[in-house]
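re: ur msg from earlier - yeah i can do the zinc ion complex, just paste it... oh wait u already did. ok heres what im feeding in:
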Amino acid sequence: MKTVASDSRGVERGGGTMMAMTTLALLGALLMGGCKHEPSTAAGVEQKPAVPATQIAAEYDPPAGTPPALKVDGKRAFELTGQFVAIGKRPLGSEGHKKAEEFIESHLKAAGAEIEEDSFTAQTPVGAFPVTNIIGKYPGKKDGIIVLAGHYDTNYPLRNVDYVGANDGGSTTGLLLEMAEEFKKHPPQGYSIWIVFTDAEEAMVHWSDSDSVYGSKHLAEKWKQDGTAKKVKAFLLLDMIGDKDLDVQRDDNSTQWLEDVVGRAAGRLYHSSHFFQTETAVEDDHLPFKKVGIPVADIIDIDYGYNDVYHHTVQDTMDKLSPNSLQIVGDVVMETIRALNTK
Ligand code: ZN
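and the outut:
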């Protein structure tokens, strides 16, 4: 993934960008605060709010008495991440990539999921490659689908160095497989849950609209054509969420009411110190799904280590991750699912 506000040198994200965005968020908050002091309209004239173009997040707050959300097992998610990352690098076309697919499918099978593959050949600037999105389905009792997603490939440009993507592609795979185990133990009582392991998220040469998120573009188009897109209530994307120093940024490119639902879920679990303290705009696997009309939220911590120093480097290893971060993100996703199921 990359932040939209990259600098002119094409660096994915520098501290300057983050600082700018943080300042912007702060300014926004100040301006919003200022609005409270604006003079009200003439007495007796009720100022009607504009008709909301989107859903209202507060309406998703679970009423008292609603059963609690499932909890994930952060230690188990960390263990699965470690096993998956031990495969090594997994760029498109590699032996590691094949092993990664097998790992995901064997664990999904053991977790009782109905498995579907979305395989195709991607034309990239460095040739044609087989790409496979893997979907694990857990049927629910309500008509509609909540999608949880994360990519499993590692960068092709880093194929010749010892780059394993423990956080970037590893952490989400471990957490999503742990969540699959929870859905085996506690089958969904609300909407169906589909867990999507996207492929070829990473750029093959340099990130652009055409050189990125190959798997997601293909799957989103397929869902548009076969009618699945209309049934998806929410697409919750996870990316780089294992960082010991967990700070999930609010993403301006996501569907804002859905971001609010996630933020309120984090608040109910007292995890707001890890969520949305800063904001940015991210290009990631969620955008192709947004384009076909699906509400999307990218749950991503793109500040990996001080000033994002570990991101896309050989330093992206297991020792930078924490079971606690996986626990927090997993629990917030489960609480978000609980909220979405109230409607
Ligand atoms: Zn990446």
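cool cool. The domain at 54-340 is CATH 3.40.630.10 (Aminopeptidase). ping me if u need the other ligands too
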